[in-house]
Structure formats: structure tokens, C-alpha cells
Amino acid sequence: MGDRQAIGVGLLGLGTVGAEVYRLLQDGDALARAAGRPVVVKRVAVARPDRPRQVSVPAGVLGSNGLEIVTSPEIDIVVELIGGIEPARSYLLRALSSGKSVVTANKALLAAHGVELFAQAESSGAHLYFEASVGGGIPLIKPISESLVAARLQAITGILNGTTNFILTRMAHEGWSFEDALAEARRRGFAEADPADDVDGHDAAAKLAILATVAFRRHVRGVDVYREGISRITPRDFIYAKELGFGIKLLAIARIHDGEVEARVHPALVPLDHPLALVPDEFNAVLVEGADVGRIVFSGRGAGGAPTATAVVGDILAVARHLAAGVRGRSLIGAGTGTRVRPIEDVVVPYFLSLQVIDRPGVFARVAAAIGEEQVSIASIVQKSRGEVAEAILVTHDAPERAIRRVQDRLRALGVVKAISNVIRVEGSV
Amino acid sequence: MGDRQAIGVGLLGLGTVGAEVYRLLQDGDALARAAGRPVVVKRVAVARPDRPRQVSVPAGVLGSNGLEIVTSPEIDIVVELIGGIEPARSYLLRALSSGKSVVTANKALLAAHGVELFAQAESSGAHLYFEASVGGGIPLIKPISESLVAARLQAITGILNGTTNFILTRMAHEGWSFEDALAEARRRGFAEADPADDVDGHDAAAKLAILATVAFRRHVRGVDVYREGISRITPRDFIYAKELGFGIKLLAIARIHDGEVEARVHPALVPLDHPLALVPDEFNAVLVEGADVGRIVFSGRGAGGAPTATAVVGDILAVARHLAAGVRGRSLIGAGTGTRVRPIEDVVVPYFLSLQVIDRPGVFARVAAAIGEEQVSIASIVQKSRGEVAEAILVTHDAPERAIRRVQDRLRALGVVKAISNVIRVEGSV
């Protein structure tokens, strides 16, 4: 073939992102200039080739046989955009084991099976790139793993899910309930019919696992990430948070302490002057921190076909350049899963507590005493009388989760506390 | 030698950044893991080797002979941290022509002589890396040139100089004059004894030239960047800007229109909801825009020894990986200087005009008519009577610079305009 010198690409999947990738890969001259060799889509596999598509793919290229793509000798780079665990996992292991390089946007697969995929890539000398798995078109994986390789990063704090950030932004700005804001997100096409993957934090947890793996150079899996969703946040929480100088965001947080990794996704109060406090609507942002570099923030539109496709094509071109130069793939992440994960009970942060208490003299002293008995100290208090019941809003100083759980037990046993309306972690010092 | 397999590094310069780089390069195990081969500092050249240093360098390594570093066969990567044009230019051309790779933080040199340096690197197959030349530790060059290679970027808007951003932040928050804010910047060690490089926009213009070259893949030189400094901005400008919903920043802006590049550094009104409006103090931020990716922002501490050193070491490791894999350097930037630069007279933006007019009936109609005669339309007006003289603050819609110059001539000829206090470009739609 005339273009056997070309880098052959096989696409698995031709949905919104896949169609954009296919379109971008038609600009042959620009690709050849950027890669040093022609880059040609040889095969595209979809479940139903007869369905109408956003792009027109020649009959000889479009098919339904994914296995053929991961085994064909004319394919050098397998681009996986089908999502989910199977058959993506089997296809990619097969591709990597036969020395093909892989570009994938599959966060769920990487978070669940990254260890075996990286190990297979390493042992085959194949490249495994995944910029598009986190943050859509925002460059994150390469800047963190390459540009910041000497920066000894200690913490990552991200708004990694656009749907939940849209919902929380609407709740904050319009005073809507969670349910109304979710309905609006659905109307705008942000939320899936089953929104659990977004609102319960699964999507953000998978992305955090990937970022932490890259930043800390040790495997962090989706299951290593503690996770709480946003459905229990109420409009009243936003009002009290704001009075105390905070917004509320679904944060994905990872830190490393002497080799032990802390990783969690949950709603959090954020001081209004925090770099992530004002990230609006469906935008994503990631704050990375290290003693040498201070705080660096990357932000942008974290999803969408076109931005995600630019990240996929950026990866394809990076791999193509390596292949053109004869460079073998090499993982910067250590082998194995021996990462020590800090149990959530040991995680130390300030807490926001919203309580309903009986409104009579001496009650507040009893609440404060109960908290103090667990060695938790109070940073600020707002109390609002509402007839027979008062609302007491407290923000504590740093306290371990296990102490806050005992505080709640004590408060419930007091008799004067009618209800603990909400307990929300605070990010950043109070 | 036992470590001839090692990548040999020669350092030119051992100031604040150089000392941090030297310190980071002592962590041999981590470097070897990241680079795939040992990375060893073989030589350091400084003007006065007898001066006390922040790091202790063995006598056999520290010397004063820069030429020896760029010619020695044991040096594979020359790291240039001396700054300025000569002798840096001659050293780096010599190093590149003998096939050594170069890592530099020298923005002034790249902005003035990038064309010949890139050409020499290309023809020698050497690597030329310069992440630390813009934005300190914020990853910009690689994310823009590699991760966003498929994003067809159309615009860059940056806060690229920390000193001027610190000064403007103090003026905005404290109502200080330019002179007082500059004095405070000096006290804090941000501003040099001769602050012209910062406050007149030279530093930002050099950085913008580098970013535009990388983003648009064609050479943009420092002299191609139109430049105005911040010394004429007054506390009153901040007050009026804020009333109209704007902050004031020193922006570095580059756009590409059908192959023609627009590049300029000047103070600008920015809407308060613009991603760069709230970048505080000495921080830097860069907004890149492309139709496919939307707006992506990178922000962080744009200077300082430690952050800049992490960027230099990131580059050294990237080059070391390439050398270990036997990859030749290849420039993604086209050859030659044939970039068409749009003259500032043809640049179209909205303008903020602050006028002192005689306070009597009919004056404002004459001002508005004079502006309309140049086909410039007015977006908003604030008028403040101050006795015999009123201040008239106008923001126009988009208008070419040449029209705004004619507007000023007309206003001066009117008789009723006592003074044009300031004319400031506006960034973002009004």
C-alpha cells in the first residue's frame, strides 16, 4: 500500500465524540505535519453500522467488528470511545498485548482496571494515552505528568463533573431545590435519564482516581475514593453557607501524606475567595498544589463532543510522533496496587453543622459543651430563632471524621436537638 | 566514565532559578526514574565563581567558562538561565549547532531571536524547550503546543506580568495611585530598581510573542507586539470602570484572523465576570480560545525561583527522555518570519473614554455627535457634574483604532471638551 508509511488508526465507537474525532482526522495535511507521518483512519467499528451518523464514513472503513480493529496489522493506534467496562477492557488488553498503542476517553475503565491496562502497556512497550478521560478539552494529564513532573504535587482539588456543578450553581443563584435544578439540567441535556452517575459522585470519583494516579505516580482506583453525592444539599444550606462566607461545590479532593493517599468526592463548603468557589455552571476546574509551585488552576468546559475530541486527537498525534520516532511506551506510574488509602474516619477537615434546637436559655451552652467533649472546637456560629425551634449553624475547626460522628451521637442524645439538618465538610481553612 | 550512559547537563547561570534547578537536579534516583537514564550536572558556569551561592557546587563542576559548556562533549543539554541577549544568544546557537539540546527560560532572547534559534535547532535535530520562559511554573508551552495541537486556537489573552498585576490590584482595592502601588511592589521585591521592563509592557510583550508563536505555529516576535504600559492609569479610571461593571488589567492579547496575527499589550477594561478580571496580586493567568474547545484558563504564580525551576526541570526531563529514546528534535513552528501582523490602527475593540467637558446644556449632544460622525457608536455613558466642569465617561461599541484617533481630534476641536483624561481599550463585548 502506498501509505504503509502512514500511522493506521482504528476507531471503536462513533458517537458524539467519535464523530468529531473522525472529522478532525480528515485534515490529512495538518496531521502529517504535526505527527511527522500521515495519520489515516483505517477502520471504524460501531455496534450498528446501518444507523445514520453525523459523519459519512466510507463503506470499506465502517464496520461492526471491534475485534478485527484490535488485531489487524494495519492498525497502529486503537482509539476507544465506546465507554463502559466490557467489551472495552478486553479489546484494549488485546490491542496492548499485541503492541498496539491505545488512546481512550474511558474514565470508568481506567478507574476500575487501570492497573492491568498500564501493566500490559508497559510490558508491551505500547503507549496508553487518556487525556480525554478527565476534563474534556482541558489539558490535565500531560501537564500534570510531564510539565509538573518535578513539582512534587501534594494535593488536587477539582470540580470534575459539569452536571452537578450546573445544579449547584442554579441552587446557589436561583434558590432552587436540588430536584428543580436537576430537572433544569435534564432539560438542557446535561443530565442523563439516570443521573446517579453524576449526582452520586461516581463520575467525579473515577476522574479523581485517574488524576491522583498521575499526580502521585501510584495507582489510585475508583474504589479507593470515598464518595458522597449532592442530593441532600438544600437551598437553606446555601443561604447559611453564604452568610458565613462560603459557597457549596461538589469537590474531588486527593492528597498525599507520607505515601498515604486521601481521596474523596463530596459536597463541600468553599470560602468565596477560593479559586474554585466561582467556577460556574457546567464548567470544570482543577487546582493542583505543591510546595514548589504553589497553586495552579486549569479550567474550562469539561465535556462536550468537540472539546473532548480535540483532546483525543492531541493524544493520537502525540502517540503518532512517538511511533514515527520509534519510541517505546513507558509508564511513569509504579506497578501494583499497594497504595495505602487513608480511611475516611481519619480524614481531618472543618465541618459545617446545621442543627434544629429547642429555643430556650441554656440550650446552646449544652450543644457547645457536647461538641467540646469530643475535642472539637467551634470556629463560628449563627443562631436563628424561628419560634419554638431555633436553627444553629456551626462551623468547626479541623476535626477528624470519627470525632464528628461521635459529636452527632452526643447531640442526638441531648434531647434539646430536634434534628441535625445537615453535616457538610469544609474545604480550605476556616 | 562510569556514567557515560548518563545525560550530561551544563548550567549557564546560578541565580535564584539556577540554584533551585541545581538543587532539584541532585535527586538522582527520581530523575533517573523519570528520564529513563541518569541525569547529571557536569558543569555550571557563572560570571563570578568565587561569590557565595545558595547551593554548594563542587569545585570541579563550578567554573566561569560558558563556552566550554556549550562545546564540551560530555554535555548533552545546555540549560540557559543567564538571561539577556548576549552572550546567551551566541552560546545557544553554538550549543544547538553542535547538536546539543537547549532548555531556556530566556523570554527576551526567544522574543528577539527565536526565529534563528528554532531554525538552528531544527537543522541540527536538537531539542529547544522553553516552558519556564512564560508563566513561571504554570504549564503553558507544552499544553498549548501538544495537548491543544488539534484545537485550532484563535486567541490568547493573558495576564503575563506579576508586577503590573500586583500594582493594578492595589490600585483597584486600595485606591492607591500608580506611583504608590509601584513603591509598594518595590518594597515587596516584585519590581526591579528600573521598573520599565514590567510597567511599560516589555516583559509581557516578549511572553506574548512566545505564546502566540506556539499557539498559531508561526513566528511572532517581540517587535510585532504593539505595546502600552500602565503608568497613565489613575485611581479615578478604576472608579468609573467599576461603575460600568469593569476592572482594569494589563492584558496581553493575540488573535489570528485568516493568517494575519494581531498582538498587543496594553491596559484594558475587563468585564467583572471575565475569567481574568479577578486574577489577584502577582498571579498570572492565560485564557486560550478556540472554536472547538471554548475557553480554557491556566493560572498560578507566574514567577519565583522555585516554581520556575520546576518548569526548567520538567523540560530537562522531557529532553532527557527524548535523548534516551534517540528522538531528534523537530519544531512544530514553520520556518521564516513571514507572519503578517495587523497594524494597531486596524485593530477593532470597544473603547472607554474619560472626558472633562464644560457643564452646560447641549454639550453632551455635541460630544455624541462628534463621535457619531466617525461611525463610532456609544454603548454606555456616565456623566458627573463637578461644578463648571463635568466628567463624561463613555464606552463605545467596537471601533477601529484609526476611528478613535479621529474621534479624539474632533473632540479636541470642539471647544467644549476641556481634556481627554484617558482612552483605554475594552476587552470582551460591551
TrEMBL record, chains A, B:
<dbReference type="InterPro" id="IPR045865">
    <property type="entry name" value="ACT-like_dom_sf"/>
</dbReference>
<dbReference type="InterPro" id="IPR019811">
    <property type="entry name" value="HDH_CS"/>
</dbReference>
<feature type="binding site">
    <location>
        <position position="192"/>
    </location>
    <ligand>
        <name>L-homoserine</name>
    </ligand>
</feature>
<dbReference type="InterPro" id="IPR001342">
    <property type="entry name" value="HDH_cat"/>
</dbReference>
<feature type="binding site">
    <location>
        <position position="107"/>
    </location>
    <ligand>
        <name>NADPH</name>
    </ligand>
</feature>
<keyword id="KW-0915">Sodium</keyword>
<comment type="pathway">
    <text>Amino-acid biosynthesis; L-methionine biosynthesis via de novo pathway; L-homoserine from L-aspartate: step 3/3.</text>
</comment>
<dbReference type="InterPro" id="IPR036291">
    <property type="entry name" value="NAD(P)-bd_dom_sf"/>
</dbReference>
<dbReference type="Pfam" id="PF00742">
    <property type="entry name" value="Homoserine_dh"/>
</dbReference>
<feature type="active site" description="Proton donor">
    <location>
        <position position="207"/>
    </location>
</feature>
<dbReference type="GO" id="GO:0050661">
    <property type="term" value="F:NADP binding"/>
</dbReference>
<keyword id="KW-0521">NADP</keyword>
<feature type="domain" description="ACT">
    <location>
        <begin position="352"/>
        <end position="430"/>
    </location>
</feature>
<dbReference type="Pfam" id="PF03447">
    <property type="entry name" value="NAD_binding_3"/>
</dbReference>
<dbReference type="GO" id="GO:0009088">
    <property type="term" value="P:threonine biosynthetic process"/>
</dbReference>
<dbReference type="GO" id="GO:0009086">
    <property type="term" value="P:methionine biosynthetic process"/>
</dbReference>
<dbReference type="InterPro" id="IPR002912">
    <property type="entry name" value="ACT_dom"/>
</dbReference>
<dbReference type="InterPro" id="IPR016204">
    <property type="entry name" value="HDH"/>
</dbReference>
<keyword id="KW-0486">Methionine biosynthesis</keyword>
<keyword id="KW-0028">Amino-acid biosynthesis</keyword>
<comment type="pathway">
    <text>Amino-acid biosynthesis; L-threonine biosynthesis; L-threonine from L-aspartate: step 3/5.</text>
</comment>
<keyword id="KW-0791">Threonine biosynthesis</keyword>
<feature type="binding site">
    <location>
        <begin position="12"/>
        <end position="19"/>
    </location>
    <ligand>
        <name>NADP(+)</name>
    </ligand>
</feature>
<protein>
    <recommendedName>
        <fullName>Homoserine dehydrogenase</fullName>
        <ecNumber>1.1.1.3</ecNumber>
    </recommendedName>
</protein>
<keyword id="KW-0560">Oxidoreductase</keyword>
<dbReference type="Pfam" id="PF01842">
    <property type="entry name" value="ACT"/>
</dbReference>
<dbReference type="GO" id="GO:0004412">
    <property type="term" value="F:homoserine dehydrogenase activity"/>
</dbReference>
<dbReference type="InterPro" id="IPR005106">
    <property type="entry name" value="Asp/hSer_DH_NAD-bd"/>
</dbReference>
<comment type="similarity">
    <text>Belongs to the homoserine dehydrogenase family.</text>
</comment>
